[in-house]
Amino acid sequence: MPQKKLQIACSGLGRMGARHALNLLTRTPRAQLVAVFTPDEKELAWAKTRLEPEGVKLYTGYDEMLEYPGLEAVLIATVTTVHAEQAVKAIQANKHVLCEKPLSTSVEVSQSVVDAAKAKPQLKVMCGFSRRFDDSYRDAWERCDSGSIGRPSIFRSQTCDKLDPSGFFVEYARFSGGIFVDCNIHDIDLALWYFGQDSVVKSVVAMGITAVQPELRKYNDVDNGVGVVEFWGGKIAYFYSSRMMAAGQHDMTEIIGTEGKVTVNANPMTNLVEVSEPNGVRREIPPHYYGRFEQAFVTEANEFTAACLDDKKLPFKLIGAVQAVKIGCALQESLNSGRKIFFDETGRRIEKASL
């Protein structure tokens, strides 16, 4: 008897959408990519070459794609500004949803996805925080959870992209929500994972510079940002994001506990090859985010598929995606206002008089 496969569609075929589509098509054995949506002519041309010959139906209308006969799930990888709208539509159409991060650049809009999911508890709805599916980060979490470093107290994490001189990130900033919401959202989610999803923010403060792409200022964004988040209960998280790395992608994390620490990817490398040259010995590092986390995205697709088919519990709660956006938005506001933002022990924002 043939194994049942999850009938899934992919919405958006841009940088990540195309990769998601190919992963579903060729690297997720229990899933069958049956349809894709994109309004972009270049993406459509790519799909006609890479996907249509494999039997994938192409759509230029999202609502029409949702009506594909037998469709069970949707992976959403479109522009951030429509993530939530498309997720809610899919949920209302009784489809499981895997949505790229963030759910939205707005806390309220992100919450609308959580509310829609609560109304359909039989559906699996997950935000794609890919680092939670990375073997190294899972290993680090297990070590922290076992108590081997004592009580995690300080968290330092960074997402640093290789410089893209094309200006892509300048135009991307128009709708990305800013460097903390787009770039550091992964680090923020990790902090909530390692400190505990019930951690409550006490204060946030951020600053940044435009070192190589001054045009980002017109979108109230920067190419290097530093944010510090203090949590109630004596925990601090430090975030750094950058769009100007010269060598390649460098995403790393350090969790410091009362009895030790765990570090992930402090010295990045593409593989184990060393190149010896007259001026020294070097190792190359991944050129982009996907080069570092490719296998994590594959694992994510397979675990989401299994959760849908076998009615398994998802690895983390959707409400965490709202918490991450709330922190990212507060950091972005602090960056642009120059003010520290405070919260009470319930997580409610409070005002403190400036000295």
**Amino- and carboxy-terminal Cα gap:** 73 Å
Q: Which regions have little confidence, pLDDT < 50, spanning 5+ residues? A: none
Number of helices, counting only DSSP H or I runs of 4 residues or more: 11
Which of globular, elongated, flat, extended, rod-shaped describes the shape? globular
The number of E-state strands comes to: 16
Which radius of gyration do the C-alpha atoms yield?
21 Å
Portion in strands: 25-35%
Helix content: 25-40%
Structural class of the helix and strand makeup?
A: alpha/beta
Q: What is the N-to-C order of secondary-structure elements (H for helix, E for strand)? A: EHEHEHEHEHEHEHHHEEEEEEEHHEE
Lateral arrangement of strands in the main beta sheet: 12-11-7-10-9-8-15-16
Q: Averaged pLDDT, please?
A: 96
Short description:
The protein is of the alpha/beta class and 355 residues long. 35% of the residues lie in helices and 25% in strands.
Give structural attributes.
355 residues, alpha/beta, eight-stranded mixed β-sheet, six-stranded parallel β-sheet, globular
Give a written overview of the molecule.
This protein is α/β, with parallel strands linked by helices and 355 residues long. 35% of the residues lie in helices and 25% in strands. Helix 2 links the parallel strand 2 and strand 3. The radius of gyration is 21 Å and the shape is globular.
